[in-house]
Amino acid sequence: MNILILGSGGREHAFALKISQSNQCKNLYIAPGNGGTHQIATNININPTNFKQVKQLVLDKKIEMVVVGPEDPLVQGIYDFFKTDTQLQHVQVVGPSREGAKLEGSKEFAKQFMQRHSIPTAKYESFTKETIVQGCKFLETMQPPYVLKADGLAAGKGVLIINDLNEAQTELKNMLLNEKFGNASQKVVIEEFLDGIELSCFVLTDGKNYKLLPTAKDYKRIGENDQGLNTGGMGAVSPVPFADANFMEKIETRIVKPTISGLQKDNIEYKGFIFIGLIKVKGEPYVIEYNVRMGDPETEVVLPRIESDLVPIFKTLQTQTLNTVSLAITPQSATTVMMVSGGYPEDYEKGKRISGIENVTGSIVFHAGTTIKEGELQTSGGRVLAVTSFGKDFKEALQKSYENIEKIHFDKMYFRKDIGFDL
Ligand code: AMP
Ligand code: GLY
């Protein structure tokens, strides 16, 4: 079959590599893709949120399956767009319906969902412009640090964690009255701060059955020792050593099962990935957030560990027969280290020539922000390359990634040398 992947990052390159290895995939397209996907699929320069253009592409290329990488098209309802269009109805979209995508698109929706289905998460209240006075009072009843979350999508920047009460109240006003995060902060969720270690749990579901994918831990801060600004993610490790069988059992019974049965009870159509951001507090798992897609860079360690062909597994989502297939996962550890442009996540330069990838051995180099210009591979984003390796444990895998990074060069490149430091 002909398959289309939407997106342009390292996550999408990892999907492209995996899907390109399937003997059920005839032609693979990716929109818009990057300098790495270009080698294994056909890049098509259209924006995934331009549904009209996506439709034209799907019809022109006789595409039968669309795998959606990022959240934006999902939150904007690409699943429903396909389902309700007579020319597209037969095309499978791997991802949730618009209603399901609210689990990521609205923090308040997600909190209400968890409350309704008794899924452990931080206590919260939400506020709008109209209830700002109550919001400021509510903060006075909380212990610091104060956690303020813009309700809507804010490209991973919508969460503020503040120690000082006055500052928290000022920021609440900035979010609600001055639209600090645009429309996304018309509503703000204030929640209890949870102190613990985070991990990501990935689930594939057909809305009825589910499969647990490998766990991963990502490193969000730009600086070593988790210091400095938040980024999209600077590296990842899978599996997560502290997620032992006992802890996974708690996650499955208290969080994954109630999430899937909650979707069913609420009549929410969901045939795709759920990425559950978790925190372990005194040995117990709590949900920090839901995402309705795979993580980036987590995908660059999770997918390489899956040995099974993903295409026939995706097909079972349509018929809600995910329970009839099995998922083989390598016991080896995988790690990825992100090479980023100097200055990221603030201002950085693009258009730097990338050299040395051809000298890499024993690692996979996933492209994130790269492009081919006049025949030359160049940087085109903040996160540029993700270097993934396997090992008997994460330390062995990391060593390979770091050895191979030494062979790659672009002007002002930066990477964290301490991925896995806290494990
Ligand atoms: P989110 O966008 O919801 O993932 O939040 C971004 C980051 O903020 C998370 O990865 C956590 O590190 C942190 N965070 C969010 N909510 C809480 C909370 N209730 N307690 C502690 N940290 C939090
Ligand atoms: N790495 C975190 C995310 O994809 O949201």
UniProtKB/TrEMBL annotation:
HAMAP family: GARS (MF_00138). Pathway: Purine metabolism; IMP biosynthesis via de novo pathway; N(1)-(5-phospho-D-ribosyl)glycinamide from 5-phospho-alpha-D-ribose 1-diphosphate: step 2/2. Residues 111-319 form the ATP-grasp domain. One of its GO terms (biological process) is 'de novo' IMP biosynthetic process. NCBIfam families: purD. Keywords: ATP-binding, Ligase, Nucleotide-binding, Purine biosynthesis. Pfam families: GARS_A, GARS_C, GARS_N. This is Phosphoribosylamine--glycine ligase.
